[in-house]
Amino acid sequence: MNFKVPRGTQDILPQDSWKWHKVEQIISDVCRAYRYSEIRTPIFEQTELFQRTVGDATDIVQKEMYTFEDRGKRSMTLRPEGTAPVVRSFVENKMHGIPDQPVKLYYVGPMFRYERQQAGRYRQFVQFGVEAIGSDNPMIDAEVIALALDVYRRAGLKDLKLVINSLGDRASRAKHREALVAHFEPRIEEFCSDCQTRLHQNPLRILDCKKDHEHPLMVTAPKLTDYLSDENAAYFEAVQNYLAALNISFEIDPNLVRGLDYYNHTAFEIMSTSEGFGAITTLCGGGRYDGMTEEIGGPNAPGIGFAMSIERLLLAMEAENVTFENDELLDVYVATLGEEAEKFGFVLTQQLRAANIHTDTDFLQRKMKGQMKTADRQQARFVIVIGETEVEQQVVQLKNMATGEQREVAVSEVVTTIQQLMK
Ligand code: ATP
Ligand code: MG
C-alpha cells in the first residue's frame, strides 16, 4: 500500500522549511516591536465555540469544519480560525482584569478547513494572526493594519493593496439587512443555491459569494456605508484619518463584508496585486469584533484583529519574484581519511558545534572526492581536511571555499581561527 499526504495538506520539506523560519522570525520581530505577545491555544476546541462566534450560517461552520466526537461523547472541532480560541482564552483567564489594556496577542499555528483544494487553499494551513482586545479607539484599528503591512514589507512584498470598509454596528446592519432582502428577493432564483439560503439567514453574505459576484444586482445592491449611523460613520472616518497619518494608502470597498459573522465596524483585506498571483488574491483579512467576549459569556471587551496564512505570503513572494537569503547554510565540513582521522574529526566537529559553528562531517567513510562533493553541494564556507599526518602533528588543513585559500592550523587554534574568518 502506498501512503500519501492527505488531500489539501502538504509536507514542508527541508528545501522550504528554512523559508518558514524566516517568516516566523519576521513575525516575532514585528510583534515584539509592536508589543504583541504570543499566545498558544489548543488545536481543538468545543464545537459550540465556533458555532457561536464564527456563526452558524457561515461557510466555515456549515461546510468546512473538522468536527468529531471524542471518547467522552463531546463534540470537538479542529480550529478553523484563531480569533474564537484567543477570545475564549481572554475570557477564561480574565485578561480584562490585567491593568494594562488593551491586551495585545498574536498566534501562529495550523488551522483546519475542509475546502476544495486549489492553489493557495489548503485543508491544513498556518495562520499568523493578532488580536488587540480591550480598546475601541480607532487608532488601534490603524495599528493592527499597519502591523500586517509591516510583516509583508519585511518579507519584501511591494504589490499590495489595502481595502477597508465599515460594517457598522448591530442597528445599522439590521436596517441594511432589510434593504438587502428587498433588493435581492425578487430575482433570487437567478442566484446560486447558497445565496438562496443566505437571503433570509444572512443576506450580507450574498455580497461575499464567489459564484455570483458578476451578477448585475451585486453592483446596485444597497451599500452598508449608506446605512451607517452618524457615530459609525465618524468611527470609520477616524480609522481612515489614522491610516492617512501613517501614510498608508487604502481603497474603500462597500462590498467587503468578510466571511465570518463576528465582524462589525472596521473590516479590511490586504490583497496581492502581483501579475503572477492566481485567482485568489487575498493575503490577509481582519476586522473589529466588538461583542464577541459577551457572546461567549465574558464581560464587554471590544476587539480587533486579522489573520494571514503563511502559505499565501510565500506564494505572493514567488509571484513577485522576491526571495529570502538562505542563512541556514553549512559553515564547516570536516573531511577525513582513515580511521584515526575520522575519530579525530568527529571530536573536532563537536568542538566547533559547541562554539555554535554549523558543522557536519562524513558518516559513510567515503573517499575524499565524495566528501568534497558533499561540502560543495551544501555550500560549506570552509572545509577542514584531516589525514593521518594531521592527526600525528595535531594540525588540520583549513580551506576557505570562497577564496580557495588553504592553510595549516593547529588543532587548538581551529575554533578561534574560524570564528575570526567568519566575522
Ligand atoms: P477566502 O475568501 O480566501 O476563503 P477567508 O475569508 O476564508 O478567505 P479568513 O478566514 O479571513 O479567510 O482567513 C484569513 C486569511 O487566512 C486569508 O486571507 C488567507 O490568507 C488565509 N486562508 C484562509 N483560508 C485558507 C486556506 N484554506 N488555505 C490557505 N490560506 C487560507
Ligand atoms: Mg474561506
TrEMBL record:
Keyword Cell cycle listed? The answer is no
Domain of life of the organism in this record? Answer: Bacteria
Alphabetized, the UniProt keywords read: Aminoacyl-tRNA synthetase, ATP-binding, Cytoplasm, Ligase, Nucleotide-binding, Protein biosynthesis
Query: What is a GO molecular function of this protein?
Result: transferase activity
Native source organism of the sequence: Savagea serpentis
The record's family statement is: Belongs to the class-II aminoacyl-tRNA synthetase family.
The record's section on PANTHER family has: HISTIDINE--TRNA LIGASE, MITOCHONDRIAL-RELATED (PTHR43707:SF1), HISTIDYL-TRNA SYNTHETASE (PTHR43707)
Looking at its record, which EC class is this enzyme? ligase
Annotated catalysed reactions: tRNA(His) + L-histidine + ATP = L-histidyl-tRNA(His) + AMP + diphosphate + H(+)
Q: Where is the Aminoacyl-transfer RNA synthetases class-II family profile domain?
A: 22-331
Localization recorded for this chain is:
Cytoplasm
| Binding residues for L-histidine | 81-83, 113, 127, 131, 258, 262-263
UniProt main location, coarse: cytoplasm
Return the EC number.
6.1.1.21
Quaternary structure, per UniProt, is: Homodimer.
Among the GO biological process terms of this entry, one is: histidyl-tRNA aminoacylation
A Pfam family per the record: HGTP_anticodon
- Which CDD domains does UniProt cross-reference here? HisRS-like_core, HisRS_anticodon
Name-wise, this protein is Histidine--tRNA ligase
Any single Gene Ontology cellular-component annotation: cytoplasm
